[in-house]
Write a structure and sequence with these properties.
Strand content: 25-35%
CATH class of the largest domain: Alpha Beta
CATH topology of the largest domain: Rossmann fold
Structural class: alpha/beta
Strand order of the largest sheet: 10-9-8-11-12-14-13
Oligomer: single chain
Largest sheet: 7 strands, mixed
Number of strands: 14
């Protein structure tokens, strides 16, 4: 084991932690430690390239995200164990989400997710609220599509409830992570592809899209088309300041439930038969 390792701490507005962590995982495939308003990246190799990529990202945005960086070389204590100790299991709805170094809970529906392998472990408000919605609305033999599946956690939750699940994501790393996590949980999906919902060849009882408000608006027609009549759409990843943009796009649907958690909104719609 090397005598030292590198640690990059990124400090930023907590509202952007998930999206920036997702960006980092596109260029650096190891585990990240997420905190309130910060992301910590550790490696035995120099992490300057991650810092430079984030600086370039900021410069390319129309509305730059304020970020500060601290890059240090540290004595190599057991930082992997330290990282594992920082990742706590969580209960959301009927589900217990836990990393593989914890034991499952007999009284819950267990989903094993290793954050070192995939982003999306139930802690973020959007994922948490979607898991609650899934607990309330998903029934056995429903046909479900998870659009922008990330780690596959939401599709896994539906599968655990007996649904027939299809997943897609435009990010190839997310597709790989979903495969790994379904395998880790000994579960199977109906279909999984790299791309968006416009590649769907059928309609579904439930369409889940935990993305961001701007993307939800951009693919609104495809999301609606993928949903059966009298089906449900579970939409999340919506900052409260952008909620009106989404509700305007889906205004002809019936809003069944709105959940606000930590400035993030989750909306459950029904596609009523006219």
């Amino acid at each position: 084991m090397p005598n030292s390792y590198f640690e990059l701490t990124v400090t930023l507005d907590d509202a952007f932690v998930e999206s920036i962590a997702d960006f980092i995982l596109n260029i650096y495939e190891e585990g990240l430690e997420l905190g309130e308003g910060k992301i910590i990246v550790r490696s035995e190799s120099d992490l300057t390239f991650v810092k430079e990529a984030l600086v370039s990202l900021c410069e390319s945005l129309d509305n730059p995200i304020e970020m500060s960086f601290t890059l240090q070389e540290k004595e190599n204590l057991d930082w992997i164990k330290s990282y594992q100790d920082s990742v706590q299991p969580i209960e959301a709805g009927k589900f217990y989400i836990f990393p593989s170094w914890y034991e499952p809970k007999a009284e819950c529906i267990n989903i094993k997710i290793d954050p070192a392998l995939a982003f999306g472990s139930g802690h973020h408000a959007t994922t948490f609220s979607c898991l609650e919605a899934i607990s309330s609305h998903i029934k056995a033999d429903m046909e479900v599509i998870d659009v922008g599946c990330g780690s596959g956690i939401l599709g896994l939750a539906c599968t655990k409830l007996g649904a027939k699940v299809t997943l897609c994501d435009t990010d190839p790393l997310s597709v790989d992570s979903t495969k790994e996590n379904f395998s880790l949980n000994a579960e199977e999906y109906e279909a999984l592809w790299e791309g968006s919902v416009n590649k769907a060849k059928q309609s579904y009882d439930v369409v889940i899209a935990n993305i961001i408000a701007d993307v939800l608006r951009f693919i609104v027609k495809d999301l609606k088309s993928a949903c059966k009549k009298d089906g449900l759409l579970v939409l999340s990843g919506i900052l409260d300041i952008k909620e009106d943009l989404v509700t305007e796009s889906f205004k002809e649907l019936t809003l069944l439930k709105r959940t606000l958690k930590d400035e993030w909104v989750t909306l459950v719609y029904k596609k009523e038969t006219n």
